[in-house]
Amino acid sequence: MSGRQEGRGRLADVVLAAVVGALGMGVAAFDDGTTALDQVLVALASAALAFHRAAPRAVLAVATVLGTAYVVHAHPGPLSALPVLGAVHTAARVGHRGVAAAGGAVFLAGYVATGPGTEHVAERAGLLAGWFLCAVVTGLADRNWQAYLRQTEQRALEAERTREEAALRRAGEERLRIARELHDSLTHSISIVKLQAGVAVHLARKRGEEVPPALLAIQEASGEAMRELRSALQVLRADEPVGTPAQLVERARAAGLAVDLAVTGEERPLPETVDRAAYRIVQEALTNAARHAGPAKVRVRIDYGPANEGERVRELTVEVDDDGTADPARPPVPGTGLTGMRERVGALGGTLRAAPRTEGGFSVYARLPTGETA
């Protein structure tokens, strides 16, 4: 909450306390036998409402004690319950429904026990009981509404945060698809042309014949086309990370996701393909956690170490776990992100496990050989 919002909240609390106090003291002033002590009790019980955000249970206790003391001393009408009603509502609003109901019951018991012995006591007691029930119910309804608003706002922030990453990922996947298509079609055809032209030139020279200029032009043009096509494919396949896994974690934290990062082993520069794959795996796992795990905690672990102690072949281990809403009984259907992640790991000769955890939540575990030896 910003400073401006906090200031508005404090002002609203003071206004609430002032309005309840003015109503309570105004009603008390018209009751016969009201003393200065009664006015003080009403004023203090109302003033306590100004602090309900910081200490809702303490405010409820103060309002209940002072309000009960007031009705015991002065035997006022039902409107004397206004400060306690406000305290009951604010306590239920933050989840203390049991304490709120108990406070209302204490005040109601004091009101009934010390009320004048007329036929109106039962009627007033029933009226107050209904008021207190409404205060608890409206407090709980307000709490649920605020929780819904916070959840909606969080989803909007997560969607905004992941929209750009998803667009970049889709663009990269499209570039790779185009590169594969060009490689499979044009590269093969141009290679055949270049090979046939080269064979024809070789045979002509071997027989002592003059090589036709058109054939030499075809050989040279096909070679130049191959070089340019390779350059274009390199551009299309360029998929450089825009940061490090640590920066991904920091961005996720800034967006409100609870993420812990642990790096073990000897941190060192990695081959470009391995470094890129690790970055994309962490990026995709954090994106999925933000979109699907709910208000979960995420743990990212990156381990630089050997694959096994016998061969001493080093590998990189990337693990991203969350305690979100994923259920092993309902495994997710692999989408583009998980499929691309699996393809990256498979291309490096590594292994990937991406599935719901037995204890709940989702786990991504990747082992990437680095090609190094210890």
**Biggest sheet details:** 5 strands, mixed
| CA-atom Rg in angstroms | 37 Å
Number of strands: 5
Which overall shape is indicated by the principal axes computed on the Cα atoms?
A: rod-shaped
Query: What's the total helix number?
Result: 10
Structural class: alpha+beta
Q: What fraction of residues sit in β-strands? A: 5-15%
Calculate the terminal CA-CA distance, rounded to whole Å: 51 Å
Give your account of this protein's structure:
The protein has 374 residues and is α+β, with helices and mostly antiparallel strands. The protein has helices at residues 3-30, 36-47, 56-74, 82-93, 97-114, 120-206, 213-237, 245-254, 272-292, 336-347; strands at 258-265, 297-306, 313-322, 351-356, 362-373. The protein has a five-stranded mixed sheet, with helices on one face. The longest helix is centred in the middle third of the chain and has 87 residues, at 120-206. It is rod-shaped. Mean pLDDT is 76; it is low at 307-311.
Write the layout of secondary structure elements.
Layout: H1 3-30, H2 36-47, H3 56-74, H4 82-93, H5 97-114, H6 120-206, H7 213-237, H8 245-254, E1 258-265, H9 272-292, E2 297-306, E3 313-322, H10 336-347, E4 351-356, E5 362-373
Parallel strand pairs: 1-2
Antiparallel strand pairs: 2-3, 3-5, 4-5
Helix pairs in contact: 1-2, 2-3, 3-4, 3-5, 4-5, 4-6, 5-6, 6-7, 8-9, 9-10
Keywords:
alpha+beta; 5 strands; 374 residues; single chain
TL;DR of this structure?
The protein has 374 residues and is of the alpha+beta class.
